[in-house]
Amino acid sequence: MTVSIVGGGPAGLYLAILLKKADRAIDVHVRERNSPDATFGWGVVFSEETLGALRDADHETYLEIADTFARWDRVDIRFRGRVLRSRGHSFSAIARKRLLEILQRRCFSLGVDLAFGLEVDDPPDGADLVVGADGVNSVVRRVHEREFGTSVEAEGCKYVWFGTDLVLDAFTFIFRETEHGFFQVHAYPFDEHTSTFIVECPEPTWRRAGLHELTEEESLAFCEKLFARDLEGRELLSNRSLWLDFLKVANAVWHHGRSVLLGDAAHTAHFSIGSGTKLAMEDAIALRDALVRRSWDVEAALVDYEMERQPVVERTQQAASESAAYFARVAGYRELEPIQFAFNLLTRSGRISHASLTVRDPAFTRALDAWFTGTAAVVAPPPVFAPLSLRNLKLQNRAVVRPDTSPAGAGLVLSGFVAVSLEGRITPGTPTIHNWTPAAHPVVLQLSHAGRRGACRPRSVGVDVPLRDGWELVSASPLPYGPFSVVPRELDEDGMAALREDFVAAATHAAELDVDVLELDYAHGYLLASFLSPLSNHRTDAYGDDRLRFPLEVLDGVRRAWDGVLAVRLSVTDWARGGMSVNDGVAIARALVEHGCDLVHTVAGQTIAEDRPEYRRGFLTALSDRVRAEARVPTLVGGHLTTLDDVNTIVGAGRGDLCILDLPPSDLESELAPAPKLVESAVAPS
Amino acid sequence: MNVGVGLPTTTPGTDGTLLLEWARRADAGPFSSLAALDRVVYDSLEPFTALAAAGAVTARVRLATMIAIGPLRATALLVKQAASVHALSGRRLTLGLGIGARLEDYEVAGVEHRGRGRRFSEQLAYLRVGVDEDRVGPARDGIELLVGGASGPAFARMARYADGYAHGGGPPRAFAGAAARANAAWRDLGRPGRPRLWGQGYFGLGDVERGNGYLRDYYAFTGPFAERIVAANLTSARAIKDFVRGYEEAGCDELVLFPTVADVAELDRLAEAVAG
Ligand SMILES: Cc1cc2nc3c(=O)[nH]c(=O)nc-3n(C[C@H](O)[C@H](O)[C@H](O)COP(=O)(O)OP(=O)(O)OC[C@H]3O[C@@H](n4cnc5c(N)ncnc54)[C@H](O)[C@@H]3O)c2cc1C
């Protein structure tokens, strides 16, 4: 059997070693365009689990790799003049050059035909297996791009990969605010003399700083100056260190006939979670295992390999993209308390939660919890049990529950849809402000008008299923909502005035009903939301020119009539072509805040029936995060959160202030009931 | 969790005798449903026709399309067919619908492929709304409606109009992910309770090569994915047990196992594997 490997990076070399070890009779050829000691970049990090896999796969290289590793267990976060530390993370790092050397040597000793300085233009044919281990710009991939279903797109910030002779003793994130915007550094040691020092910033910042016009030396000098204090007089080192975009590579399939992709050629994961080398080497292990298991039946083995690796890699890529997006918008978090900023950073990719960080570093979450609850307690309760003050209202915790589940102990109970008038009902059974009473406290009264989604059958049989004999509907424009929906009448000025009165009267009435939070419903395509979106507001009058006008008039009227906590439930994006983007939604949230809104209940979509939602666990968290950071307003968020750990993580990291829990009532009660008592410390808070 | 079994409507060599025998035995065995796939361009049986035949010789099991490609059929006729199977079988129909994955089915049916999502929504709404004022009988109340598909809009349609979700197959982990999305969509659209969740897989316990050969041929249109589907074929009692357990843990309500070999002995083997 003959195996032709294009590319002598970690993926290609490691596969060559493993194949030779599995069967010496196999002819393994590796073609590498560079010379043996030429490579890009500096050191790369590994996690402990990766090391375990390497130990089992090839003990010899494992020993050498492990021997040269720089190891540490700390993450240092330098932010606003403070250093926040988190322990228990167990990292290791190695110089990329050193790693390749070890692998190259092992290849030679096993009899791999490894040749340098050979650029492959066309993938070799004639081999039983052709391996594309040729990195991000793989030629093996390019010749079958259609079959592989390749996508390549830039993600995250502009970055440049330097080294430095400063030897750090922790994984170090540095955040620096400049007149051009935020810059940040990902730095870590990888041997006794050197550390990796990656600098990044969003592209607009990069342009404002003029970095697109600087030479390699000039931009090195720029970064050296910017981080002079952190470098402690040491210098930055260049190794073809140019500003680049990080390219996210994904492929629908990883093999075609006898060609297979490995490592970066198949997939990349943003460097901010440091996983690319690990994934590349794990790919090699999985491919070797599949070939052995399938007795060198190449086709069957390639299917196995792909089925095993793809789900793992997709999860890593998802986490990496979350991380990349976090760093691209990190400037928005500059006003968070340093401890919260640090917790937000550590939990950015969704792979670490409040609970899992507590396992690694109990002292860190203890400090977070204590700060968060504002107590000097020895053991402060986690963020979900921290009280929240909004205006004159004090909520006992952050867990919000739906009307069909109202256990004792919830911080807040939602009323569900309550119409301001009979015409504003969704179904004949929808409560109105005239017959609704709170079932539990504290309660949020969701005041709404269904608009063009009214006059429907009960939701037990479906949603937006119109009644046979309904009532007249109104909306911003005469556009039916879904298939077979009734065409609504366009609301005229008199209608608007009357509607505004309905809302104001309902708000006045709410005060008598002992409501704790009043929530105006500007979401999900109901009447007030229909004014906000270009997809549902086609008006040519002033209320079409300024789509916010009517919703703000209602808000102003209600604000005057209601001096308690006023929330707005807002679809932050339409999730539809031609509709509102998240940026539009954030701008609306800002305007609402200026007009006296105290809390934004972040939801998305349902502006039109045929939208493109992205459902999964926590699908609204990122939107709440943006609204909270950019409109600077407390948020309430749901999106299928199913554990208290979800709430602790979201609230602790400042991505939201109140969370709706989706749990069966019985589970909810047991989760919320034993709210831990605060143990006041004898020592006064410092 | 219930376990149902597929009818051999897409495997080669099925005739009326075999189909009826298969249905009778399934009804007598430990299975809770009989389901049929839908495909136009293939040597396969039309699902409503096959379910009607199966309904005539069974008394207990539910009869399910898993899924039928809605937009290929004119809506009123789709409703007519479904309601007829429902009536003939003593109200046992579970109507799983989706938009399907094959362009060529649309081409030979002479139906526009573009805009299929919107038309599918209209069909679902039609079923729920009764725009025909129930002039298109027989009565269709009691038809359990499922929607399949993996996109955001598919989950939204499911939550808006259906009683549950029909998953397209894969390991339990993939099913669990889809179930979370289905539940998220259900909540988001304000439906009470939770969606019914149906899963599916393939099995072949006798002549494995014959079964794999069929899968390769049936899924040739997916290109390289065909081999993955072959690799996931459940070919031992052990594999079936693990699969069933995995689906149960992932919250599945009804798992349908589809045959890859049209041989009634396969039913007995499956019954044994599921029971043992
Ligand atoms: C800034 C940055 C920081 C990173 N930090 C980390 C980290 O901390 N931890 C981590 O695990 N990963 C990290 N990575 C990712 C890691 O570098 C890659 O994922 C890893 O190198 C992938 O290995 P590979 O063998 O697939 O590809 P590569 O390492 O890219 O190797 C491909 C090889 O193929 C050769 N080649 C390409 N084309 C041809 C051709 N036509 N003919 C012959 N040879 C060819 C190239 O010269 C190269 O040697 C980082 C990446 C970046 C950009």
How would you characterize the overall build of this protein?
The complex is a heterodimer of chains A (686) and B (276). By secondary structure, chain A is an alpha/beta fold. Chain A is built from 22 helices and 29 strands. In chain A, strands 5, 6, 10, 11, 12, 13, 14 and 15 form an 8-stranded mixed β-sheet that branches. In chain A, strands 20-21-22-25-26-27-28-29 form an 8-stranded parallel β-barrel, surrounded by 5 helices. Chain B has one domain: Luciferase-like domain (TIM Barrel, Alpha-Beta Barrel). Chain B has helices at 16-28, 47-56, 75-88, 103-109, 116-129, 152-161, 172-188, 208-218, 225-231, 237-249, 264-275; strands at residues 2-6, 33-36, 62-69, 93-98, 144-148, 164-166, 196-203, 254-259. The longest helix of chain B is centred in the middle third of the chain and has 17 residues, at 172-188. With 276 residues, chain B is α/β, with parallel strands linked by helices. Chain B is globular, with a radius of gyration of 18 Å. In chain B, helix 3 links the parallel strand 3 (62-69) and strand 4 (93-98). The A-B interface holds A 147, 253, 255-256, 299-300, 303-304, 306-307, 311, 404, 417, 457, 459-466, 468, 482-484, 575, 603, 605-606, 609-617, 619, 638-640, 662 and B 117-118, 121-122, 125-126, 128-131, 133, 151-153, 155-156, 159-162, 173-174, 177, 180-185, 187-193, 223-225, 227-228, 230-232.
